[in-house]
Amino acid sequence: MNRLAGLDAHAQRLAGTSLAALIEADPARARDFALRVGPLYANFARQRYDRIALDALFALAAEADLAGAMQRQLDGEIVNSTEGRAALHTALRGGLSLAAAGPHAQARRARERMQALVASLQASAVTDVVSVGIGGSDLGPRLVVDALAPANARLRVHFISNVDGNAARRVLAPLDPARTAAIVISKTFGTQETLLNGRIVRDWLGEGAAYHGGRLYAVSANVERAGDFGIPPERILPMWDWVGGRYSLWSAVGFPIALAIGMEAFEALLDGAAAMDAHANEAPLRENLAVLHALTAVWNRNGLHAATQAVLPYDDRLRLLPNYLQQLVMESLGKSVRMDGSDVGLHTVPVWWGGAGTDTQHSFFQALHQGTQAVPADFIGVVRAEHGHADNHMALLANLLAQVEALANGQDADDPHRRYPGDRPSTLLLLDALTPRSLGMLVALYEHSVYLQSVLWGINAFDQFGVELGKQVASRLLPALQGEAEADDAVTRELLRELNQRR
């Protein structure tokens, strides 16, 4: 992609200049390379670009018409060209355009139905809810519930996603089926892993749990299949083609979230995301946090040629954020062809990974500080704690600030084993507090950043055909495992022989 070719020249120009030198030469950098949107503050001063390179990045943003691309998505244009679909997940939380009015109204009606179901379960004898899904039907709700559910929540929400039967056994073992409800989440109601786990949970609930007990629910676009599974229409919440799975936590897929934190808090989550939608759509390019985050990601990938990206939340309530972002970013941007089917001609998404600080300081931070490859990182912190352990929180924040400083500045030493090269780029994101609104803003920020990166690369952020091949092969191999067919692949045939000998 020609418009990104100039990044190499800027990166080479800056190659001999340390991050510490960039900051020393530009006293206003710490303030000017920062943006605040409501309760979310972001500082990019420790990224390895200067004002000249940043000007070039914003010129790329204007050339690629990122502002127009954002508006086209919000207006419901076909941005998912390979599947001929709009991507109107923003309509789930707000109506920023006339085109979104219809989908937004559908979403509001679905939330009204969801609110009634939440109230019904809260008034029942049910104490626990098991959510069965996978991918986007699991990771988003799981993240939000883990982050925001109070310790004394009226309804305790649990999740099963892995088809490994051990996952279901571990979740169900301590629960009472007579006091448990379950939600099966699948757009098509044909996802193999979800249906297999759904049958385990349905059978575990016992006879009559579906119709008579009122404890089995679904979120699906396929009411007929969900009905065949034993779930009546009044306990089936809708899904729509204009919402992709990894963008669906704002929809009825968020039913487990509403059960765990309440409808009012769920609405606050949506409000936070809607506020970020408005900012991403309305703020000028240079004042637009989603744009700057996206440009930084593209700079690190195509200018600095970083092959991986770390995300490091310094709040244990956000420990699942790296897992969530792995799907959001890598499923959206893991593409090697452009929208027109031609080769993209450059590297797209890096491998995203990470974990919660301070635990990870004692595992993989050694590689971040002294490894041979610089790994860009997003550090995420929360200013105000709610647990009452002030000393712990001060220590946590001290470690957060120390790590971004140490990675950037490094430290020289006569002993090469004790030398830290520094120049490890990072962005620091700070939430005033971890609330439904601030978490909604944070997640929506990453959604918009991902989409804008896809525009810069000319790829489709909303399909995921790479997920399908392994599923197709698995469906062909299942009869072979059951002794009803023979595998075509020679190595697979040998592996099947080994498995069958040892079962």
Overall residue-averaged pLDDT value = 95
Low-pLDDT residue intervals, each spanning 5 or more residues? none
Total strands: 11
CATH superfamily of the largest domain, by name, is Glucose-6-phosphate isomerase like protein, domain 1
Based on CA atoms alone, the radius of gyration comes out at: 24 Å
Number of helical runs? 19
Helix percentage: 40-55%
Q: Indicate the structural class.
A: alpha/beta
Strand order of the largest sheet: 1-2-11-10-8-9
Terminal CA distance reads 52 Å
Question: H/E element string?
Answer: HHHEEHHHEHEHEHEHEHHHEHEHEHEHHH
Number of domain modules: 3
CATH class of the largest domain: Alpha Beta
Biggest β-sheet strands, sense, barrel: 6 strands, mixed
Structure description:
This protein has 503 residues and is an alpha/beta fold. It folds into 3 domains: 2-63 and 283-463, Rossmann fold, CATH 3.40.50; 118-264, Glucose-6-phosphate isomerase like protein, domain 1 (Rossmann fold, 3-Layer(aba) Sandwich), CATH 3.40.50; 473-502, no CATH class. Helix content is 46%, strand content 11%. It is built from 19 helices and 11 strands. It has helices at residues 7-14, 19-25, 29-32, 51-63, 66-74, 101-122, 139-148, 165-172, 192-205, 223-228, 255-261, 263-282, 289-303, 321-333, 365-370, 390-409, 436-457, 468-481, 490-502, and strands spanning 34-37, 40-43, 128-132, 156-160, 180-185, 216-219, 236-237, 308-314, 351-354, 377-382, 426-431. Strands 1-2-11-10-8-9 form a 6-stranded mixed β-sheet, with helices on both faces. Helix 10 (223-228) links the parallel strand 6 (216-219) and strand 7. Helix 12 runs parallel beside helix 17 (436-457), helix 13 crosses helix 17 (436-457) and helix 14 (321-333) runs parallel beside helix 17. The model has no long low-confidence stretch (mean pLDDT 95).
